[in-house]
Amino acid sequence: MSENKQRPDRADDPHLDDVDVPTHQGQSPQAGGGSTPASAAQSTTAFPATGPAAETQRLAHPGESGHYRDEDFAPTETPAPATTVAPTAYPGDPVVTPAPVASQELTAEESAAAQHVDRTRRGTIDFGIFLLRLALSAWLILEAVGTFFNLGGGQGITGLESEFAAYPAGAVLAVAVPVAQLAAGLFLIFGLVTPLFAAVATVVTGFSALHFVATSGEGLNIFAWPDAAWLAVMLLAMSVVLQFTGPGLYSLDFGRGWARRPLWSSWIFVVLAIVAVAALWWFGTGINPFA
């Protein structure tokens, strides 16, 4: 055969000199066609491994691979916090001044001024409540003192016992009623512990009203009730009104909440007073005043 036929078609291509062709070196087969021993040394040209397994191996052991990427050594950067840029002021724009923040703490002068304004806005309400309290207290005190000291033509405790003689607890009531009148009158005239003693006044005036209605024998005929019964009813109404209005600022309770804005305490003491009147009349007299 000629030399041209033994040479490959692209053997003369000069660009093939740089191609890395894998080679195999080893012992040639022995004569007689024997196979290559298992311990024969083999060497090949190494290619870099590719695929998912190779990528996992490279990430787990970066020092064992000769291939690196720029992001492997890229520094971790923390994003800078966002900043608020104030708008640029131009000539002619209106100047906006922020409103001053009011201080939460008031000085002694400011607190006194606020209390003075609050008192002024109430007008003459507190003075009217004071007159109501004074009138009710005066009647209670005078009635009790007249009973204890036998003043004003009355018969004192003895006369009151005779008046309550028809009741099972007449002797006890003859002492308890003027004592309650005096205590309620003294505390109410000073405006001290007003909710409690306004309730006491409600009890004693309510008992007196029921007593005069029962002794008159008119029952529910309100037009035939005696003047003493109507006086007791009016005093009862005054004590209930005072319970809901409070003693006002002209009292020793002026620093209490019930002095100007009574709420739940008024209802509680009014209900307790009504229950006390009913219990006192039922267990003290045992009769029906409207029969």
Automatic annotation (TrEMBL):
Q: Where is the composition biased (Basic and acidic residues)?
A: 1-18
> Which InterPro entries does this entry report, sorted A to Z?
DoxX (IPR032808), DoxX-like_oxidoreductase (IPR051907)
The UniProt keywords, alphabetically, are: Cell membrane, Membrane, Transmembrane, Transmembrane helix
Primary localisation category: membrane
> A Pfam family this protein belongs to?
DoxX
Q: Where is the composition biased (Low complexity)?
A: 36-50, 75-91
Give the transmembrane region(s).
130-152, 164-189, 196-216, 228-252, 264-283
User: Do the record's keywords include Isomerase?
Assistant: no
Its Gene Ontology cellular component terms are: plasma membrane
| Region Disordered, residue ranges | 1-98
Q: How does it sit in the membrane?
A: Multi-pass membrane protein
| Assigned protein family | Belongs to the DoxX family.
The protein's name: DoxX family protein
* Native organism: Corynebacterium maris DSM 45190
